[in-house]
Every structure is written in structure tokens, then in C-alpha cells.
Amino acid sequence: MTRTIVASASREVVIGFNQPFCVIGERINPTGRKILAAEMVAGNFETVTRDVLAQVAAGATMLDVNAGVTAVDPNVSEPPLLVETIRLVQSLTDLPISIDSSVSPALSAALAVAKGRPLVNSVTGEVEKLEAILPLVKKYDVPVVAISNDETGISEDPDVRFEVARRIVRHAADYGISAADIVVDPLVMPIGAMGTAGRQVFALVRRLREELGVNTTCGASNISFGLPHRHAVNAAFLPMAIAAGMTSAIMNPCRPQEMEAVRAANVLMGNDPSCGEWIRHYRDVAPAGSASAAAAAPATGGGGRRRGGREGRRAAS
To answer: Residue 120 is part of which domain span?
Structure first.
């Protein structure tokens, strides 16, 4: 079985087919979060600190760290900001990290200060990117996320995306990088725009596992982009992807519905021995319909139905 090893200075995590699903917390990312981006540009890391601690408490396996703030200030140099952010994150938690950048100087600077064995997120099938990033992956002996697009863009044809992944794995082998250190992102399309997106990614994940023997990941919230009540879609998608063979996802662990789905999938796939993690998290949850559950339920008032707030439109909310 393929085992992708990631580690901090004191904790090791195994991403693998017979391992608990790896939840990569997505919140330390200013993309689409203008307030966070502005804070980071100003040297204010209060929100980053809160997001680190909240994701750790929610049960993230590792944390993705992104410092791409050019949408707010294109003059900010990414390498020193990414280094500062990584140092802060590593001071707050011993969870392994994923270094999220496609800028090779930023990756180089980040890898020089990252402790343990971080995951590099990411490289694509573009030759220029491969030749810039794979030498860093080899130099620091770290695993890398391989995104299934190349110079032609993102294909809607899953066979094309599979071939891009195969080409990245072969190119990495030329650098002496094992397939065990390649975590493929087959690219999840929004189901609201492409009705076959779910079936496509499930079939792709099976092929990647069976034919290339690689672990897989995705941006889980992409599947629900543009839809209302997105977290219910995400929560349904995750166990189906896990059953197809997906071994990790970049997602928001602070969404209880999605984390419940992941933990339940771990139980059902046999990756939570004796249901220990499930029991630890949910032993005190009152059964639906019980008196204690009814007492905890919010009143609707006057027999009317209470309206919830409008869902956010951002992909990674």
C-alpha cells in the first residue's frame, strides 16, 4: 500500500489507502479573503492565529499555509511573508503543514524554515513548473501535490486529466522522486456547472489508485461552488470520494457536518479501529428525538419557520 509520509518536528502523519482520511485545513489562505489579506500585508496575524487554533481544535490532520496576498497588494514579496506565516503556525501547533504556493522562490524560502517533512502544494503538468519545483522537492525530500492540468489548461475530459497525472509521475521519477511522494489532485469540477463532475472524480480517483498507485487529494468545496446550502453537498461528497479511494482533502475542518461525514467514512472503511475516534468525539451527543436534544433545539417562535442566513458564495468558506 502506498504511504505518503508528512511530518512536523514532533508528529508524523501517514496518508494512505488504509489510513484515516487526512484532513488538510484550508483556512490559512488569504485568497478570496480580502480582510485577512490586508491584515497579513500589515503584519497583523491575529486572524491567522485564531484560524490555526480553531482548525487544530476541530480535528485537522495537517494545515495548509498560503501567503498569496497579491490581489490586495501586488508589491508584497511572497517569500518573506510565507516564511513569517510558517514560523507562526509552527509555533502554535505541532501538526504537519502543507506549503501552498506555486512560486518557486517562495517554496524555496519556505522549505528552508519548515520543520519536519511538509507537503508542497503544488506542481502542475506544465514543463516550466515541473522543472522549477521538482528539484526543490528532491532537494528537501518532501512529498508534493500534483495538479492535473498543463499548458493547455484544465480539461473537462477525465482521461486527459489522468494522462497529465501520469506524465507528472513519470517526470518526477526522472528526478528520483517516488510515486509514494506524489499526491495527485485530479481536479474537482463544480457539480452545478457539470452534472457529471462527481462521477468523473470518483472514476479518476479509482484509476489513480489502481493504475498509478498514488494518493489523492482535492479542494473539497469545489464540488459545491455556486450552490446554496453548500456544506450538505460537501458532506455527501466526501464519504463518496473516500469510498472511491481518495485519501486526503483540503477542506474546512471547522464545519461539523463535513467532519462528521469524514469520521463516519473512516468508521465504515475500517480505518477507525473499534470506532475509537468516533466514540471519543460523539459519545456525549444526545440521540435525535431525545428529551435532551429537544431541550437544546432552538425555538422557532409562533409556529413559524425560522429563516437561516444566506450562504457565502466563496469556494473556501
So the answer is: 3-279
Chain CA centroid to CA 87, Å: 20
In a domain, 99, yes or no: yes
- Closest Cα partner for 140 from 161, 120, 169, 165? 120
List the single range of 7-21, 68-82, 161-175, 296-310 with lowest mean pLDDT.
Answer: 296-310
Sign of torsion over alpha carbons 76, 82, 83, 87: positive
Please list, in sequence order, all residues whose beta carbon lies within 8 angstroms of the beta carbon of residue 151, skipping any fewer than 6 positions away.
125, 126, 127
- The mean per-residue pLDDT over the stretch 9-25 comes to 98
Q: Please give the model's pTM, rounded to 2 decimal places.
A: 0.91
Number of domains in the chain: 1
* Per-residue pLDDT at 314 exceeds 50: no
pLDDT of residue 1: 77
The pLDDT score that the predictor gives to residue 298 is 55
**Residue 292 within any structural domain of the chain:** no
Give CA–CA dist 140/307, Å, rounded.
Answer: 52
Calpha distance 53→229 (Å, rounded): 26
The enclosing domain of 275 has a CATH number of: 3.20.20.20
Report if residue 216 sits inside a domain: yes
Q: Tell me the pLDDT tens digit for each residue of 173-217.
A: 999 999 999 999 999 999 999 999 999 999 999 999 999 999 999
Higher pLDDT, 45 or 301: 45
The C-alpha atoms of residue 43 and residue 37 are separated, in whole angstroms, by: 10
Domain assignment present for residue 293? The answer is no
